[in-house]
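Intended use. Records like the one below are meant for learning the mapping from a protein sequence to its folded structure. Do not use them to infer anything beyond what is encoded.
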Amino acid sequence: MSRKRPSDDGDELLARLGALTAQARERAELQRSRVELAIALQRGMLPAHLPTAPGFHLAVQYTPANSGLSVGGDWYDAFTLPDGRIGLSIGDVQGHNIDAAAFMGQVRVALRALASVTSHPGELLTRTNDLLLSLGTDLFATCTFIRLDPATGLLESARAGHIPFVWATADGRSGIAEGEGGPPLGVLDGVSYPVARHHLTTGGVFVLVTDGVVEGPALGVDEGLDQVVRLAGIAAVAGLEATSLAAAVIRGAERVGHADDAAVLVVGHDGVVPRGA
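Structure written out for the chain above:
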């Protein structure tokens, strides 16, 4: 009876190991390619420029998830409405893949398109919800939409399952915006979204975030929101620019090791109107 020599067994084992290694490498490269495509798709759909208004400043920050080969569907957007007011949105799509990134683009485009028909925050989210349901997808998104009137500083907001935003004033007050919200977009039919109204006073700031900013392995949502409240309060009292506050908020998210994408949108009112404006 023949018997393989030890060297033959070793060669066969090495060959099998080499084949398994090659397969694992191919799978890793495929997953990496998918992630890179999703990131490119996601960032390509985010706005290249933000609108401007005398006395008001917008600032954004975004960082991808820092664990695993995954990418979420977080987005932010800001655009000028037909009547001269400014539309602001921020949100998060369920999932961490190309489908989530593509669905994010659909939600963002839907909000922009429907805002030309109605910019009322509650009606806009209702119409967007109906449109997404008509697509028949299993995905859903949380979202906050705000309509800002630069002439008065009035902000009208509606939330679809999204975490509340943070506010702070120059006189040292700060907190989390109160107000009832509705369910995420793309889940339930016939939903209405309540509208809350706030005023952005001189020196004040509003901070909109996705959950990757306020939740991570080392931080719960409540603690994360409290951290943003503290940063916003310090920035408002110290008169820091919106860009500085946005950078500070995203650094806080990075320190707690956020496991999801993180997006920040800051609206600041310095009350300084350029001559001739």
